[in-house]
Amino acid sequence: MKKYWIGVASNDHVKIGVKEGFAQFGHGKLSPIKRLRNGDIIIYYSPREEMNVKSLAIKGFTAIGVIEEKIPYNPPNPARVKVIYLAYFSPLSKIPGPKHFALTKYFFSMKHSKGMRWKWLQYEAFPKYGPVVRIGPRAVIIADRDMIKEILITKDLPKGQKYEQLRTGPEFPTLLTARDKTFHKQRRQIIAPAFSFKYLNSIEPLIHKCINELIVKLDEMISQNQHTVNIYKMIQLCSLDIIGETTFGGSFKFIENGEHPLPRKIFQELRRRIKTGMYPFLKPFMKQDPYLLNFMTSLIKKRRQENSKKKDLLEILLNTSGGEGGMLDIEVQHQAIEFLIAGSDTTNFSISMVMIKLIQNPDKMNILVKEIEEAFPEFNIDKLPSHDELKHLPYLNAVINETLRLHPINYDVGPGRITTEDTMIGDYFFPKGTTLVINMYRLHHSPKYWGDDVEEYIPERWLDPEKIPKDCFLPFSAGTRNCIGQNFAMMEIRIMVATLIRRYKFEDIPNQDMDIIHFFTASLKTKQYNIKINLRDLK
User: Which residues bind heme (predicted)?
Assistant: First the structure.
């Protein structure tokens, strides 16, 4: 006997589906649909006047169909239906991007696994699809100035679940990986004193001490006729010593001792976290190396045994343990590891790129040398230029800003923010649960904002602030989750760059591999850049 079935789309299903041209039958349940038989007649009814869905243009329709006698009903695979819906019928289907990327997140993950997704985005995806590109079933990457501001500042969307996969321990959120806004605010208040201007002024002599050790090492190499130096490596070792001296109570002595496994272990741990985040099924095969945790445990144990009170970040963290809202020692370990990873790799890359750009552009180098010589006519290794004096030098700041524009601290602002409800940002509708990745590299390299000379190294563009496009320079991110260490980083960059340029003459060695890889932070693929160095004639 024939049966007549009436399927009525609910408000929720219209909101999800009709805007894209269909509505779910049977409210997405298989049990009533399984009762359909050959010859049954379906009436699908969706009256426009009864649907009250805000801001959506809903078209009412009535459809009648018959279950064909020769084709028995076979319920579709729910997973397959879900994939088809996400790819072709979800609100994100209107956002441009490679069609196959809409089927699974792994196509984009493959771009990332080799550290080269930034290059694909900059030179293929954004030029072809525009500043908003769909990169997965529920993921979009954005390089539009106004949308970025709305995501990071106006709406301050929370961080996505992938941040949990970046933690050293899943149950120990840190300042970077915390998703809960209240937790992040409390943790930032605990750590903030270590990045205040008062504290930074107090540790400046420690930065000078580490840079002096770098000078001693370079002078020694020059005296032994070793004029070819891997500037990338030397800056990396010095940056790690600065972190040790200012954060953990003493230099790691990397400059003095040369090779050390820590930089390699940091890079390996970063890659492990990124890869297991992209491919969770790899976790059993890519176990966490205990080296970093053991390294930090040893530092904390030593500090406890010394019973000394040093004015550094580690002491600030340890002083909170045991108190209300304070941190357990295990939490201190995980937070300290984060600072070790974030502080070394990012600042090292920034300083290295400032130096490399100057060495590759001797005309710009000469302008900066003249500015520094005029500001500091006498150079004394025992009294390096102070940050208070350096921060007002216009061309030094222009050189640093131009390098940070071309090579921001992070090319992407982490794994992305997430919409906690259906959201309109700009002209785009993002359903609840959409991951929005901010791409700083494209924002800094967009001809729309910076002009046709966007790819050129022109520090002079920064000498006229009115010519800098508004809200288009965000090397340390923006909003409540901006980089807490940005003032520390700028101080270290200014002092090290000014000191090296004031004391040494540099010459480029052409035709070196400058390939950049980007996982969570950027780095030179070869981990080296060789230059020729000699002492400058000091007045």
Answer: 483
pLDDT one-digit tens code per residue, 222-236: 999 999 999 999 999
Residue listed under structure tokens 């400059």: 255
Instruction: For residue 152, count other CB atoms closer than 10 A to its CB.
Output: 22
> Tokens 């035709």 correspond to what residue?
511
In contact, 261 and 240? CB cutoff 8 Å: no
Alpha helices in 279-422 (DSSP H): 291-306, 313-320, 329-360, 362-375, 387-390, 394-406
pLDDT band at 55 (very low <50, low <70, confident <90, very high): very low
pLDDT tier for residue 207 given thresholds of 50, 70 and 90: very high
Residue 472 annotated as lining a ligand binding site: no
Between CA 321 and CA 326 the distance in angstroms is 5
pLDDT in tens, 154-190: 999 999 888 887 777 777 898 988 999 999 999 999 8
Measure the CA–CA gap between 368 and 382, rounded to whole angstroms: 22
**What's the start-to-end Cα distance of the chain, in Å?**
105
State the pLDDT at residue 478: 93
What does pTM read for this prediction?
0.82
Six token digits for residue 444: 């800094």
